[in-house]
Write a structure and sequence with these properties.
- There is one protein chain.
- Helix content is about 40%, strand content about 20%.
- It has about 230 residues and is an alpha+beta fold.
- The protein has a five-stranded antiparallel sheet, with helices on both faces.
- A hairpin with a 4-residue loop joins β4 and β5.
- The relative contact order is 0.16.
- Residues about 195-205 and about 205-225 have low confidence and may be disordered.
Length: about 230
């Protein structure tokens, strides 16, 4: 009887210790998250702002505008829309576009008022290293330029076609084609915004223009065989 009672007490003691460890771990994680979440958010804003200046280098100001109705569709989502200005005049627009690639990706794209793509950069890409991830790699070149630089100067009004307007990455055609689809969607939304912006003016949001918001990878062998 005594032995059984001691066994129960030992189980209770061990259970209490585990509960204390769990509570302590959760508390530490909450504290760490509280200190790092704002830093992560700020880093994402700075990254997006830098990318926005890269895709529209000749703009001297960006103003956030409302997205048109139905901007996002299916598995592709559009966010953070801006008009690019120079000397107070609207010269184009910029949006962020996220959607499936081989895994998932998020780009920022700029389009001029004449429909010409001013630039494209990646904010996120989680495809396979050595294959789809080359799309965002600044050291990987296709005909002397990065994959994303191929889009610059292309006419977005007619859409961009893989094999015609840009070359696919060898072994990563799924990624390549998907990025083209993201670019097409972003350009479509921007042109809708710019068409709306001539008269009346775009509806500016109250946020500061620098407040830009911000899966595991598949194996390389799987992407090589599938793509």
């Amino acid at each position: 009887m005594t032995e059984s009672k001691n066994s129960v007490l030992e189980m209770i003691r061990l259970g209490a210790i585990l509960v204390c460890y769990a509570v302590a771990s959760c508390t530490v994680l909450a504290i760490v998250n509280n200190f790092t979440s704002e830093k992560i958010r700020q880093n994402n804003i700075e990254k997006a702002n830098a990318a926005m200046r890269e895709v529209f280098a000749d703009a001297d100001a960006f103003e956030m505008v409302e997205l048109p109705s139905g901007a996002s569709s299916g598995s592709i989502s559009v966010s953070d829309s801006y008009v690019a200005k120079k000397d107070g005049q609207i010269i184009g627009g910029v949006v962020q576009v996220a959607g499936p690639t081989y895994d998932k990706g998020k780009i920022i794209i700029g389009v001029r008022s004449n429909g010409q793509i001013s630039g494209l950069r990646f904010l996120e890409l989680t495809d396979s290293p050595g294959f789809g991830l080359k799309a965002s790699d600044p050291t990987f070149k296709i005909n002397g330029m990065t994959f994303y630089d191929q889009f610059e100067g292309k006419n977005a009004l007619d859409g961009v076609e893989m094999g015609e307007d840009f070359d696919a990455i060898s072994g990563a055609t799924i990624t390549s084609k998907a990025v083209g689809a993201l670019a097409d969607k972003g350009a479509e939304v921007i042109m809708t915004i710019l068409g709306r912006s001539s008269a009346p003016e775009p509806v500016l949001q109250s946020e500061e223009s620098d407040s830009v918001s911000s899966a595991t990878e598949k194996s390389s062998s799987k992407e090589a065989s599938n793509e």
